[in-house]
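not sure who needs this but someone in the group chat was asking about Magnesium transport protein CorA from Xylanimonas ulmi so here u go. i didnt clean anything up, its just raw.
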Amino acid sequence: MTTSLPTPALRPTTPRPAPRGLSGVLRPRRRPAEVAVTVTPPTRPARPGTVVASAIYDDGARRSSHVRLGETFRALRSRPGGMAWIDLDRPDATELATLAAEFDLHALAVEDAVQAHQRPKLERYGDTLFVVLRAARYVDAAEEVEFSELHVFVGPDFVVTVRHGGSPNLAEVRERLEADPAMLARGPEAVLYAILDAVVDGYLPVVSGLENDIDEIESQVFASGAEASRRIYELSREVADFQRAVRPLRQVLHALTQGFSKYKVDDELQANLRDVADHLTEVAERVETHRGALRDILTVNATLVAQRQNEEATVQNEEIKKISSWAAILFAPTVVGGIYGMNFDVMPELHWAFGYPFALGLMLAVSGVLWMVFRLRHWI
């Protein structure tokens, strides 16, 4: 059953000075005096604990902290020129629908934030930026790369971060920004910069961990380890996944830098974003080098495996030659003994006085000749 409800307490209609920055020439949202909203009662309550942190900032300082989204909305309405930063952990569709209604978030962006599994990208919906990031963390114990997804909505006076994983540590990002009021005072774009910086900084330990793994694999390959091929394949997949996180992010940063002049981004933010872009370029180049090194290692490993198989086949052939040679040498006396062992009354040399010595001599002579032949051919 649906009911028509008026919106709760409305934000003052006094226009705010629009901050300049990455999200464009931003305008304060204007709402009509009364709006009829069709609300469908949820089938289950929202999961507790999805709001990780929610605070209102003004002039580079935290003014208030809140547990519920409604409290945050009311506090932001009461502070013109302020900024809200809401951090959510795997919210459901109901919570994001509440945010979408308050901040005019586009339905497609909200759908992406709920479903996750998106590639890094930057999309602009009116005066709101929607950024998807893939953070990475190197797990040393398992020697593998763990990926997380982060969605960021950046508007005129708000930042909404939606986590799908544990990286990056947004609590540390928030603390670092709060310790730099001059940067935080630059508004939502400063928060976006800090998040991008944290994501790219998190890539550096991953690159170092992959380098160590590649060095170990090189030693394992030349030490003729049996598991080298499998480990090369697994590491190649990790590097490829990591590259799929890094490469699209370069396009995101390129799109942001291209909008510097158009949207009159603060000079300090421009310099910081260029620095982040430089670090990301370094990471991308090192990842590409790792992928090329793994291709070379895989080729070398295949060559060494083929060489080892040839060596094993050669050893087996030598053994077969020796066995065959001695079998032929022993076969000759067997033939002579079998012939003279037949119980026929009329046989040449059967009743000859020198028949027995002659048979033994024949056996030895044939065996000796065969031994010399095989010896000259290096079979024995």
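also The domain at 3-304 is CATH 3.30.460.20 (Beta Polymerase; domain 2). if thats useful
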